[in-house]
Amino acid sequence: MTRSEQERLLARLLGPAEPEVSCETCFEELDRYVELELAGADADAAVSGLSAHLVGCPACREEHESLLALAAEPRSSL
Fold first, then answer.
1. This prediction's pTM
2. Residue 24 in contact with residue 59, Cβ under 8 Å?
3. Which among 35, 61, 57 has a CA at the least distance from the CA of 47?
4. CA–CA dist 11, 16 (Å, integer)
């Protein structure tokens, strides 16, 4: 197990160090959060608690990573 994996596991076991949102709120705010990230804005300040939730929730983290990758892809012209 890598150090990064150990740190992630420990963080999940200990729980968030800051307030976090629910999965429902995460899915409601995830599009805006990703748009802010891609724009270089402070997404954590704009959507408080979402970053902490992503650390501890594998399903929401996977959705975030997928959405971020999709939104960052260059668009082809039709």
1. 0.71
2. no
3. 35
4. 7
